[in-house]
Amino acid sequence: MGDTMSPLRGVIFDLGQTLMKYNGGQGSDYKKDARKKMFSFLQENGYLKHLPIETFLSTIRQNWEKYEEAKSSAEIQITASQILKETLCHLGVDVTDSLVDAAMEAGADQTFELWDLIDGAEDVVRQLHSSGVRLALVTNAADTRKQERIIDRSGLRAYFDIIIVSAAVGIRKPNPDIFQRVLNHWQFQPSEVAAIGDMLDRDVLCGNRVGIKTIWFLSEHTDKAENASHVGQIKPDLTIVSLCQLPSALAAIESGLSGMRVGYHFNLQKVRKLLKEGMLDSNSEITFVPIDSMFAVEAQGPFDAVVMKVTDLMAQARQDDSARQFISDLQSFLANHPKIRVIDPLDKVGALLDRGYLPPLVTEMQRLLQGSSATLRAPRCLVLDSIPSDPRDVITRNGLAYPVIVKTVEACGSSCAHEMAVIFNGLGVEDVMKTLPFPLMFQEYVNHSATLYKVYVLGDLVHLMVRPSIPDAPPAFLESAHLSAQPVLTAFNSQKAFPTGFESASESTLNQVPTPNSTESINSEAVRRIAAAISECMGLTIFGFDLIIEARSGDYLLIDVNYFPSFRELDNFPSLFKKHILNMIKQ
Question: Considering the entire predicted model, what is its pTM?
Fold first, then answer.
């Protein structure tokens, strides 16, 4: 628990991989290219005429390696000009400062144009500057000239009232004196300043030494391998994965960081959606901390709660050693820390990986729903692990009738998980087995008035939405399909627009856009009981499920349960989500 901070009056930014990213490949490549250009310049001007380029590259690389250790241990900045000068002296060149400057200029042209702003950098810098916060830029670099050009390229220079390049002052982060220069310039106390950067052993350690609050920018541009050994050893006050989180992170710092620490793990696509919605913004009650699969989970704690969607990762773990290792590490961590509130348990979420969960789940739910005004059932289904000897007759032989809907048993984690088809005859079954991977699930397809009821559950909150679904199949079309000598099926992707009709060789119902029923056509109390039964049977608190109502019988069919859906239809979801987490922690 923290104490209330003084209002933040200043923020110190790092440059590389914090505000700007390099788009020209790995660091060793651009350094080598720059040195080659230096060598070409020197030869063109009459120096090192008979020296092989490999000798020059080897010598300058050895001098760099010698100074790398020195600059890290002493936290001083050896400049690129110094190293080039020593290299040329070693190779017998009569060195002048003007020659070194000209050679450096030739090499600098190679790279500075390959730096671009990171998404959100200009917006957040402008926003902070407009709010009256003082901004500084402190960057480690061996070449002042090139770094100044990169800063100019950013277009952000005017927002910073102090800029320090380590090569110009002879010291580098994490030497605390470099940040102290900023504090002295501003005449601010450490409690009034925060720093953000991508490197734990430079940006964060430097801030920690000075006594200012630190924010680790752990983005897709961060060198995670270089940070790995410092995770858990050098601790930032906050970690963010996008610059759009910075304003809320600074506000949380001002509130004293007294909120619950909530670790989270989602795939990159999900994180981007949540960031856009403000879901992962820290506040006075919750500090969100990313859990990165590249680092030991234990080192990233402590946490009061953990919220995650790991279904894709669990599916990936079936074939990928690194994903499997992370899941194992996560499970061990949670087992060793039973007081951490897990939202929701991994084993419960993992049950949704295969669509085979549905029939036994509904059977268990039916016991809890006795006396309900609605009859709940799962679609009758057939699961095939491989192509049978009688693909054209396998549906009817196993007690199902056409039409059927086919989908992979694997519910997520593959490119085919959302590919489906409504099949109307045996030739269609035979045809679909050539395109979708086994095992496959064939479910009865019932007419349901083209209405899909999507239900979102967040703790005790149950939110019902009505969506158009696949239209009913007319009897005449079913008869035509049964007699057809061609495969009759309609393929679609369940994450995109549903088909608006069906088509066979002799008949079409295409473009008959369905009009769904309203929420008044479904028993809301029955929906609430179904939601409660799923939650009790599966141990989930954040999920969605899909219902259809069979037109003939009025039965409710549960056709899908998914963990942590988008909730985009739910007003004020970010605040409801954070309230739910706090309620779960307090239980």
Answer: 0.88
